[in-house]
Recover the amino acids of this structure.
């Protein structure tokens, strides 16, 4: 049987959700019997491949780069999982939404910089006006809330997805957990 | 002379139950271990019917009615949950989340919050409506308490506790619809209030992290509400 292709990615998040994914410990070996991780920070592939079955994405959509990434992921993936509170509610990255981006740049590159006060013009993605939940930008199939989602719930979800089922996450995890 | 209440029988979710004629559907449901979700309701305070979480179907009535403010009647047939009711409840919850800024992971009430618990219980895993991300003030001028409007659901419990139980009427709600805001006195800072007795009742009846004690970190704010029904009982005896 061909293995299920899993990709992971993070946008504007802290990597905590990925840490929680690693907290499933040796159970990851069970999952890898019937799945391959084909892309993401945990493996070393440079480009997002074609034909991904399941993508789990952490973080809010905050910059033009995030927007490009998630649009591409959506296009090349069967099932997209919004992974954690930042992806689902904008959470902490969304706390900057009450300020105009101009003020944020001022604060980061001028007020808080002692040396070389300057806004970088290359290699830095541009902030969108708001950090947004993923499903406000592209269609999402599964929502896995939590900050971070507990390892057991991640394991349950991945097991279900690998077996071709959509996990029922109602009542299993909540915002802020 | 005290009004005598009569015993009435009715059907809730197919179960025959009885109650007194001055009891609400919610009270009778509670007495019979039938769960109806609530948010603005709190035992010991007057019934407000504001949050609409407790809406139920009553046979023969064209609209859904709040269980907390609808009195029972002889022969009534009540349904406390259906797909229609459930979807309305989810929408109400979702709107509450979008209208303010609920960042549970950084909230003092994380893990002890009634809004969060309702989302878990009703299975709300995400919010379909676009978030508004309004800029909301935080009033930390009081010596011991904080009012964080980012987390307020306008349930009015603080207003009722302050008025009905403490008798100070420091808190009130100003404005209309989505722009409504809980205020202190005539929209003054809490710290400079001349009417507030600093009793803390509003803080402890608040279902969310909107009113909290100072000096609490993330997930440390647990509310203590045992005093309310007790206070009420003692007053009734007086
Ligand atoms: S008040 Fe409740 S729902 Fe709002 S951020 Fe705090 S814990 Fe979350
Ligand atoms: S502390 Fe007491 S008096 Fe002051 S606003 Fe709250 S309930 Fe009212
Ligand atoms: S401050 Fe708390 S008790 Fe008062 S209306 Fe807001 S959520 Fe309700």
């Amino acid at each position: 049987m061909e293995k299920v292709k899993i990709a992971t990615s993070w946008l504007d998040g802290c990597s905590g959700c990925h840490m929680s994914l690693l907290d499933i410990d040796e159970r990851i070996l069970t999952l890898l019997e019937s799945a391959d991780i084909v892309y993401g920070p945990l493996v070393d592939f440079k480009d997002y491949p074609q034909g991904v079955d399941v993508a789990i994405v952490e973080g809010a959509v905050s910059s033009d780069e995030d927007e490009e990434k998630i649009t591409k992921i959506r296009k090349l993936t069967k099932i997209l999982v919004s992974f954690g509170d930042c992806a689902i509610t904008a959470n902490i990255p969304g706390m900057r939404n009450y300020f105009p981006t101009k003020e944020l740049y001022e604060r980061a590159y001028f007020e808080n910089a002692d040396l070389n006060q300057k806004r970088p013009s290359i290699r830095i993605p541009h902030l969108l006006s708001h950090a947004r939940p993923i499903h406000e930008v592209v269609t999402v199939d599964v929502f896995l809330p939590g900050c971070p989602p507990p390892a057991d719930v991640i394991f349950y979800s991945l097991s279900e997805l690998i077996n071709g089922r959509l996990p029922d996450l109602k009542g299993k995890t909540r915002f802020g957990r | 002379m005290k009004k005598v209440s009569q015993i009435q029988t009715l059907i809730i979710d197919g179960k025959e139950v009885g109650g007194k004629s001055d009891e609400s559907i919610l009270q009778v449901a509670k007495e019979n271990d039938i769960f109806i979700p609530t948010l603005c309701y709190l035992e010991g305070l007057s019934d407000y019917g504001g949050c609409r979480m407790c809406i139920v179907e009553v046979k023969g009535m064209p609209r859904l009615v709040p269980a907390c403010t609808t009195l029972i009647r002889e022969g009534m047939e009540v349904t406390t949950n259906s797909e229609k009711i459930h979807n309305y409840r989810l929408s109400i919850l979702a709107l509450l989340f979008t209208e303010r800024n609920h960042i549970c992971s950084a909230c003092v009430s994380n893990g002890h919050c009634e809004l969060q618990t309702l989302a878990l219980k009703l299975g709300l895993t995400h919010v379909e409506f676009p978030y508004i991300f309004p800029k909301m003030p935080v009033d930390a001028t009081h010596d011991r308490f904080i009012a964080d409007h980012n987390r307020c659901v306008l349930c009015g419990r603080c207003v009722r506790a302050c008025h009905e139980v403490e008798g100070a009427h420091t808190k009130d709600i100003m404005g209309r619809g989505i722009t409504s805001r809980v205020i202190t006195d005539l929209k003054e800072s809490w710290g400079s209030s001349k009417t507030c007795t600093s009793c803390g009742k509003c803080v402890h009846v608040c279902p969310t992290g909107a009113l909290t004690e100072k000096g609490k970190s993330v997930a440390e704010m647990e509310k203590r509400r045992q005093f309310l029904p007790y206070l009420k009982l003692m007053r009734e005896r007086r």
